[in-house]
Specification:
This protein has 184 residues and is of the alpha+beta class. The chain has one domain: Alpha-Beta Complex (Nucleoside Triphosphate Pyrophosphohydrolase). It has three helices and nine strands, in the order ααβββββαββββ. A hairpin with a 2-residue loop joins strand 2 and strand 3. 23% of the residues are buried.
Length: 184
């Protein structure tokens, strides 16, 4: 795994491994500074050969009948909107279990206190997917998803916007749009 002393070393490494960052920080893409924050905080690791961003993600499935809750889109600090269409998800921090990350996700992303939800640990499963990152175009990312279902009390019956509680602390997402979507 790669080690960097500062964001300049990270930028130099990206150039050395032929990752074109010219579009980073534009439109829906995050910046090199955002990747630095993720790496420095231990939310991601970077592999050299081939260049790969490795991310562990807790993903929570919240059901209402035949529907699941998805983050339809994010509004970024620059006013741009990024379409997501995925269940509540949070990158795991060093030393954090998927259960601890799931709790943090529900509290930070949905503003739900622990007395208002129950994680169904018996539903746990995991999967690994690799794709070009939407956040960092050109940088392939391997996602390890730790998936768990949750029962939550008090969520709105229709779509709703929520402010991002982590906004400004290295997180460019200002707010999230949540919708109920039929599960296929």
């Amino acid at each position: 795994m790669k080690k960097f002393e500062n964001v300049m070393e990270l930028a130099a490494w990206l150039t050395a491994v032929n990752i074109n960052t010219s579009l980073w920080g534009e439109g829906n893409a995050k910046s090199i500074d955002n990747l630095w924050d993720e790496w420095r905080d231990g939310e991601v690791t970077l592999q050299d050969n081939p260049p790969l961003r490795l991310v562990n993600v807790a993903q929570i499935l919240v059901r209402k009948g035949k529907q699941i809750l998805v983050e339809a889109e994010q509004e970024l600090e620059n006013g741009q909107r990024r379409f997501r269409n995925q269940p509540p998800s949070e990158k795991m921090k060093p030393g954090e279990s998927y259960v601890e990350t799931a709790v943090r996700c529900l509290q930070e992303e949905l503003g739900i206190q622990s007395e208002n939800f129950r994680l169904l640990t018996e539903t746990y499963e995991h999967s690994i997917r690799e794709s070009d990152s939407l956040s960092y175009p050109g940088l392939t990312t391997q996602y390890t998803f730790h998936i768990i279902e949750a029962q939550i009390n008090g969520l709105p019956e229709t779509e709703f916007w929520l402010d991002n509680r982590a906004y400004g602390a290295g997180d460019p997402v200002r707010r999230h749009l949540w919708k109920w979507q039929y599960a296929g």
